[in-house]
C-alpha cells in the first residue's frame, strides 16, 4: 500500500469562493479516479500556526495505482484549475504502509 500525503497554502490573493471551490473539487477527486483505495481531504483546523491550509491523505494499492492517479485527467484538471492559480506553497510525500 502507498500512502500519499499532500498539503497546500493559499496565496493571499485567493478569495473565499476560490478556496471553497478548491476544497469541493478536492473532495470529489476519488469519485472521478479509479484505483483510490482510501481518500480523506479537507481544511486545516488551525490548531498550529504555520500549518498548511488544505490537504489530502490518500491510499493506493501500489505505485502504479498512485501514478495513474497523478496522471488521471481529473487530477490534472484539479491541479490546472485550482492548485496552480491559488497555491503559495505545497508539499507532498509518499510512504509504504501496511
UniProtKB/TrEMBL annotation:
UniProt xrefs under SUPFAM superfamilies: Dimeric alpha+beta barrel (SSF54909)
A Pfam family matched in the record: Dabb
Lineage top rank: taxon: Bacteria
Domain Stress-response A/B barrel positions: 2-95
InterPro entries: Dabb, Dimeric_a/b-barrel, HS1/DABB1-like
Subunit organization: Homodimer.
Protein name in UniProt: Dabb family protein
Species assigned in the record: Aeromicrobium phoceense
